[in-house]
Amino acid sequence: MEIWSLLIRTVFIYFIVFLIMRFMGKREIGKLSVLDLVISVMIAEIAVIVIEDTKRPLMDGLLPMILLMGIQIGLAFLTLKNRKLRLWFDGKPTVIIERGKINRDAMNKQRYNLDDLMVQLRENQVSTVADVEFAFLETTGKLSVIQKEKPQSSSSQQQSSATSASGNGSQQPPSITKLAKPFPKNFRFESLPVPLIMDGKVVSDNLESLGKDRFWLNNQLRQKGITDLKQVFLCTLDHKGKLFIDSRRTPRQ
To answer: What's the superkingdom here (predicted)?
Structure first.
């Protein structure tokens, strides 16, 4: 008998939580702000307590969940009309990259590290930080990237495509040829851009994967006017073999 009670409670709470999430709106499904996360966790915890304790009346879980739904819907309407209140509950986006320059203070404040940044840049199909005009860390934790415009005339595009089409069939396209030059044949290109220095420390594994050493890296930095690795916050190598350096001093071009 207790097993049937447990099964009935589980099915009942499932539909209750489903309806509550539907009434709360698609916003809670599409993204999770801090407030959304708190409400969702509390509803889940209350549902588990009611399911586990079969001696507890269902109303002990139903009423708190309805109350939380009312709080969420009420705050959603209030924040819809009041931007200050909306910013207080949801926060506001943080500028992580501005005109190709990483905002280290913003990263430290948000406890957002370089590994997170590199992962989300790759997810946005960005090969190097230098190509980014602005990057915003949204309140949901997602990175929104606005890339710099790369003007190229339509005539030059048509000419390059016509040249590659009329050439020898065994010849590789220029983009692939450029891609292969800085990297070994067995290098995993999906990891681009490749971090060489992060937080002033050399990423030795990436250097070895590229067939490079610290002597090569130091020479590249000296050409940019940098003599101390600790001056470099981030150094990456893109698919064209071009270094991007974000340092505490402006490197020579």
So the answer is: Bacteria
Question: SS3 for 125?
Answer: coil
Please give the CATH superfamily to which domain 94-147 belongs. Answer: bsu07140 like domains (3.30.240.20)
136 contacts 143 by C-beta, under 8 angstroms: yes
Considering only CA atoms, which of 227, 218, 217 is closest in space to residue 249? 227
Q: Which residues contact 96 (CB under 8 A, 6 or more apart)?
A: 102, 103, 106, 107, 112, 117, 135, 136, 137, 143
> Strand 232-237 relative to strand 194-198: parallel, antiparallel, unpaired?
antiparallel
Interatomic CA distance for residues 197 and 236, integer angstroms: 7
| CA angle (147 as vertex; 173, 217 as ends), nearest 5 | 70
Q: Which residues are CB-neighbours of 40 under 8 A, at least 6 positions away? A: 21, 28, 32
pLDDT tens, position by position, 150-164: 665 555 555 545 444
Q: Which DSSP string corresponds to 135-191?
A: EEE-TTSPEEEEEPP----HHHHHHHHHHHHHS-TTSPPHHHHHHHSSS-TT--GGG
CATH class, domain 172-247, is alpha beta
Q: What pTM, to 2 d.p., does this model score?
A: 0.53
